[in-house]
Write a structure and sequence with these properties.
Elements: H1 2-5, H2 18-37, H3 57-62, H4 67-93, H5 98-110, H6 114-124, H7 127-144, H8 150-173, H9 176-205, H10 213-269
């Protein structure tokens, strides 16, 4: 049985260095801004200083100014970290259906078949299975220990569950604080771009009493494009953060449910 218990699975924990992801997204955003949005073919007379061609969206985005690649960096970061969290949390769930796994473990515990529960963990793998496997190992140790009282054994099993959970959960929440920060930062950067664009627009209107149509249109484009990009970035970040937070809550609930069943089974089957 001891050999069975040691097979703790190693799941995908995600990207630990989010700074490198942000840096890579910044480089990509700058390249897209200059070579895609700023492509001369998007503008009249093939000159990025002129108006975008009628109906040309890429050229219009380019006129959003220097704030565009900054917001685009935030947007790409949200997308990249969301993909990374998706695979990390999916790996934490394990190979099979998590709800079915929890139900199966509870059924085997009700029958007192600890070895079968360990086998289920080895097949399931993932964070929940790792926590349960650690708890079952401690269960087996306490079952063979004649030196401790029942209450002490229950405390030891509960402590093992808490320690195993504390090791697994931080890996699930990794990089989520960055996504949470971008929910606000993306909107604020969009607002900053809007203010800068409006300043340019009013400056064009006040220019020697005559309207500089190019400067005016560029200011308006900068204001509207940055507003749109900022709202899009903030919205995606909020959706991503709430989605993955709910997934982690389900994993936490599953761990608590199985952990409670293990403790209760030991309490019911030992004097």
């Amino acid at each position: 049985m001891e050999t069975t218990v040691q097979n703790k699975s190693k799941s995908f924990t995600g990207i630990k260095s989010a700074g490198l992801v942000i840096l890579a997204c910044l480089v990509i955003a700058i390249l897209i801004f200059h070579f895609v949005f700023g492509n001369p073919s998007n503008f009249m007379n093939n000159d990025p200083n002129n108006h975008p061609l009628p109906g040309n969206l890429l050229g219009t985005i380019y006129k959003g100014g220097i704030i565009v690649p900054i917001i685009q960096t935030l947007l790409l970061t949200v997308i990249a970290l969301s993909v990374e969290r998706f695979f990390a949390i999916k790996s934490a769930h394990g190979k099979g259906n998590l709800v079915k796994f929890v139900r199966s473990v509870k059924e085997t515990l009700a029958k007192g078949d600890i070895k079968a529960a360990q086998e289920l963990c080895n097949k399931q793998k993932g964070s929940v299975a790792n926590v349960v496997l650690s708890a079952l190992k401690k269960y087996d140790e306490m079952d063979k220990d004649d030196t401790l009282a029942k209450d002490q054994k229950l405390v030891a099993i509960q402590k093992e569950i808490e320690e195993a959970t504390a090791l697994e959960l931080p890996m699930l929440e990794q990089n989520l604080p960055i996504i949470a920060t971008i929910t606000t930062l993306g909107t604020l950067m969009g607002l900053l771009g809007t203010v800068i664009g409006m300043i340019r627009s009013f400056a064009a209107l006040a220019n020697a009493g005559a309207t500089d149509s190019i400067a005016l249109s560029q200011g308006i484009s900068e204001a509207l494009i940055n507003t749109a990009f900022g709202i899009l970035t903030g919205a995606l970040a909020v959706i991503s953060y709430n989605y993955f937070t709910s997934k982690i809550d389900k994993i936490t609930y599953s761990i608590d449910e199985v952990g409670f069943s293990i403790v209760q089974t030991f309490a019911a089957t030992h004097k």
